[in-house]
């Protein structure tokens, strides 16, 4: 028995040494070996769990840390690590409990307080999250991520002055310059941000993908895809030919046009959205790409191009229209939705972080790029706080 203990101790010390010099894979192997000699030993389990957290192997870290903490309930670093892994896995209720346990045990890590505030926000405990960020920033003001997150909470509450102040503080303390400028432009209408940051749009819809259809259609009353397809001036029994679904999302438009399309292509910037669309089995071709890159790289043409709830996340549409012009067949259709903008406002970034588009701006783009204005219809796109979001459903025909 003593020999087994000594072998376990040696493997454990080897693991600690590897961990300290950053050789994490070797550290993990040594801790696993140690457990073969001393099964269930809490100190070894704890260090194995910490190593897996550093390796970002969170699903593997959680059960090991839970086993360690069942035996060593006062290990504050273990609770902190467990909170990090649970939050990385999206298990926010459990993460919050673990992080608060680490704090109660006196763990001083600022990152624990930051992750706790994030957990509160993810759980829609807005007031608690705001208080957590405010308290944290009073003690540690040089935290750009905390300032930006606090600004987002102010945005959701409609406190635009406080939102702008938080973003400026984040910018002053090193937040991503493009992202901070985009957010400030949305709330202050100052500065010229013609495009939404591509990474923001991709991440937004990746996070949204799993619950997209239920949330958008059932909770927000979204019918934009149906209204847009119904606006096409093609008889319901006639073929649509080759169809391009720009910003296809999970395939809501695809379900409405598949039976009438001779070939259906879907494109979306979000890989998770493309994966959900693929599950429907509707598309002849699916591609993950930014619409500008996709249209630049292809030489295909389509008889119908649909863009439902896409341009509101693009911003300025000059490049998009120029790229679409040769991709729509002569006599073909370009149909899209926009959030309605006031005449003379062009493409305007809103506090919602979406863009509105003015009708005169769209007519000018159409005319300059070889499209005739066929029709426009004003109707809600979705509902926000039970209020309709006014939209324009536009159909253009390629000359």
Tell me what you see in this structure.
This protein is an alpha/beta fold. Helices cover about 55% and strands about 15% of the residues. It has 19 helices and nine strands. It has helices at about 1-20, 25-35, 40-55, 60-70, 75-90, 90-105, 110-120, 125-140, 145-155, 160-170, 175-190, 200-210, 210-220, 225-230, 250-255, 270-280, 290-295, 320-325, 360-370, and strands spanning about 240-245, 260-270, 285-290, 300-305, 330-340, 345-350, 355, 370-385, 385-399. Strands 1, 2, 3, 4, 5, 6, 7, 8 and 9 form a nine-stranded mixed β-sheet that branches. β4, α18 and β5 form a beta-alpha-beta unit. α2 (about 25-35) packs antiparallel against α3 (about 40-55), α4 runs antiparallel to α5 and α8 (about 125-140) runs antiparallel to α9. The N and C termini lie far apart (about 85 Å). The mean pLDDT is about 95.
Summarize the structure.
The chain has 399 residues and is α/β, with parallel strands linked by helices. The protein has helices at 2-20, 24-37, 42-54, 58-71, 76-88, 92-104, 110-122, 126-139, 144-156, 160-172, 177-188, 198-208, 212-219, 224-230, 252-257, 271-280, 291-297, 318-324, 359-368; strands at 241-246, 261-268, 285-288, 302-307, 328-340, 347-349, 355-357, 371-384, 387-398.
Unreliable stretches: none
**What top-tier CATH class of the largest domain fits best?**
Alpha Beta
- The rounded Rg comes to 26 Å
Q: What pattern of helices and strands is seen along the backbone?
A: HHHHHHHHHHHHHHEHEHEHEHEEEHEE
Shape: elongated
Largest sheet: 9 strands, mixed
Output the number of helix runs: 19
Oligomer: single chain
Measured as a percent range, the helix fraction is: 40-55%
* Structural class by SSE content: alpha/beta
CATH 4th-level superfamily of the largest domain: Vaccinia Virus protein VP39
Number of strands: 9
Here the CATH topology of the largest domain equals Rossmann fold
Distance between the termini: 87 Å
CATH-scheme architecture of the largest domain: 3-Layer(aba) Sandwich
Number of domains: 3
Mean pLDDT, rounded to whole units? Answer: 93
- What is the beta-strand fraction? 15-25%
């Amino acid at each position: 028995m003593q020999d087994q203990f000594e072998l376990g101790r040696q493997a454990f010390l080897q693991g600690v040494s590897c961990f300290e010099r950053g050789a994490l894979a070797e550290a993990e192997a040594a801790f696993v070996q140690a457990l073969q000699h001393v099964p269930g030993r809490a100190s070894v389990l704890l260090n194995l769990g910490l190593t897996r957290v550093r390796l970002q192997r969170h699903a593997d870290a959680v059960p090991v840390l839970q086993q360690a903490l069942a035996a060593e309930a006062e290990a504050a670093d273990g609770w902190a690590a467990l909170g990090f892994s649970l939050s990385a896995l999206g298990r926010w209720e459990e993460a919050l409990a673990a992080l608060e346990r680490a704090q109660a045990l006196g763990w001083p890590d600022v990152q624990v307080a930051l992750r706790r505030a994030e957990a509160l926000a993810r759980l829609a405990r807005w007031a608690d999250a705001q208080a957590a960020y405010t308290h944290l920033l009073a003690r540690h003001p040089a935290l750009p991520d905390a300032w930006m997150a606090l600004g987002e909470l102010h945005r959701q509450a409609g406190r635009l002055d406080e939102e702008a102040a938080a973003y400026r503080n984040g910018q002053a303390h090193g937040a991503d310059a493009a992202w901070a400028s985009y957010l400030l432009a949305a709330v202050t209408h100052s500065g010229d941000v013609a495009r939404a940051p591509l990474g923001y749009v991709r991440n937004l819809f990746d996070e949204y993908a799993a619950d997209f259809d239920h949330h958008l259609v059932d909770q927000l009353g979204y019918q934009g895809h149906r209204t847009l397809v119904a606006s096409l001036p093609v008889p319901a029994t006639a073929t649509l030919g080759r169809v391009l679904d720009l910003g296809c999302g999970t395939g809501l438009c695809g379900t409405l046009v598949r039976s009438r399309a001779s070939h259906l292509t879907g494109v979306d910037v979000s890989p998770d959205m493309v994966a959900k669309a693929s599950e429907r089995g509707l598309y002849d071709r699916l591609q993950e790409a930014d619409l500008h890159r996709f249209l630049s790289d292809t030489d295909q043409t389509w008889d119908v191009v649909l863009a439902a709830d896409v341009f509101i996340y693009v911003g300025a549409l000059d490049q998009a229209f120029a790229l679409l012009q040769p991709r729509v067949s002569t006599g073909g259709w370009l149909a899209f939705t926009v959030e309605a903008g006031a005449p003379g406002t062009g493409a305007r970034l809103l506090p919602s972080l979406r863009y509105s588009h003015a009708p005169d701006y769209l007519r000018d783009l159409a005319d300059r790029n070889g499209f005739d204005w066929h029709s426009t219809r004003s109707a809600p796109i979705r509902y926000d706080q039970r209020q309709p979001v006014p939209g324009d459903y536009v159909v253009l025909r390629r000359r």
